## 1
Amino acid sequence: MFLLDDREMRDVPGKGKGVFALKDIPAGTLIGDYLGLVISNSEIDEKRQGLYSMTLNEQLAILGDPNEDGIHLINQSCEPNCAMYPLGDHTVYFARRKIFAGEEFTVSYLIGPPDAECNPCTHQCACGALSCRGSLHCSEAELNAFLAFERAELKKQDNFAERFLYEVGKKLEPLASYPKEIADHPIYPIFAAADRPAFELSGKATLEHIRKSMRAEGRRCRVSALDAEIYAVFAQEVRVRYV
């Protein structure tokens, strides 16, 4: 389910369809809730269903319908502009940085390392990002870090009695209400829009200031003293390209 209307589906070379913003979207904006049919994990059949399932808990998953409108249609990217966040047993997507009008919404699928069944692996990534790893799989360290963050966030939430209102074979219902935005957290890397001009950083080039500025601007950050542009910010480092 999308929680914003200013979007449209377009053809994306090499990826089929994609979801695009029709206006600028501020950082933190809630994009939508991952809704669909509640199924047991044993019912997941990627070859038949495609990559449209989302974990609900240790036993259950949510299966999105590719013929229905929803955030399950958002494509994967190794440099995503959206991110997942847990609200009870629901998973919502939000804008991890400013998203520009005409830009495709993307998210990291956070598929863990390949297992024995992934042979030969069919999870190739075609996002075309500067740091594309060529695979939908993330590292074990990246997955474990997000799962730990998820557990910590859920412990803070004490107002989601609705989280138990679901049945196998029925659709997960929307929450009664949603926050207006999701706060930033270092667990989410900030990747600048690749096709937008850089902005000049004002003030001290601290990691915190760079992150806050790039999240709001959505663009590469130019640091004159380094003669370089920062295109990604992580929890404890930045990635630069020299100009």
## 2
Amino acid sequence: MTGVQLRPLVDALREVVLGQQVIHADETPVLMLTPGSKKTHRSYVWAFATSQFCETAAVDYDLSPSRAGEHARNFLQDWSGKLVCDDFIGYKATFELGVIEIGCMAHAGRKFFELHATNESMLAEQVLRYIQFLYEIESEVRNLEPDLLRRIRQEKAVPVTDNLHA
């Protein structure tokens, strides 16, 4: 199959992803051979995926020569919705355009883990406990219907997040 034959499939995949109200995004460095050279350079693969609640599981991968935020903006273009991502500054410009940021609890937890490991912070330890409670709740509700999942999250997770915020 040539790139020309794949274009309709790639466009359809992108349309599925961008048709969602929630998209997950992440970027990963890869070494790429420079054409005409025996040297490699760092490029990035950007992954944009549907959420677990989408009936069509899809991931669109974009290769770019850098980690510049313009690559995320170029993919998302005029899309508006909720973007689940880490705290990478490259996504910030999309938030200024109306995209809603949904932070990643795993990334936030790492910072508190580092703080606790380095300084034995009691506050960081408490935050890590709250995060663990949230993960336990998510484990319990993972396979439930959306309405029931939401109700249980409201009952169990909201008090934990309120304490975490306080």
## 3
Amino acid sequence: MDETFERIRSEHRRVLERAAGLEAMLPGGGARHVGAAETTALLEALALFQGQFVTHVAAEDGALFPALVEALPETRQTVVPLQAEHAELRDMLARLTATLAEPARADRDEQIAVQLRDFIDLLRIHLRKEEALVIRVAEQLLRPREVQALAERMSQGPRPERGGAPA
């Protein structure tokens, strides 16, 4: 049981480390040009985040959050905003990927910096909330079969009805 929650925490730490790496790629106020090499590096980094949406976030939305709300209905007030943040983070990734596909120009570079900063900031806030408001509570409330279902879901990735990779 502890292994599943430690895995969640470990994945959160890895995501935060990747976010710190992305910060190093941030163009400084539009002054740094985002050329082909930087665009490729950013796209590769964003693909890692998208992979987290396919497995980790899908498991939270499809198994952890519903089990927590079933065990303690009052947690719905916490879970619903976290699910909305998952959707917003997916949208932010999609917008950032689309911006990176645009032809290089100064205003594009500025938009990349703004979008990347916003994504990293929301991601950090979101993960802190999950750790404080969901993971600790879930460890105390969920039954072993619910934790096992969560572990299985985290291992298998998305279900077809969830639409596969994030938009």
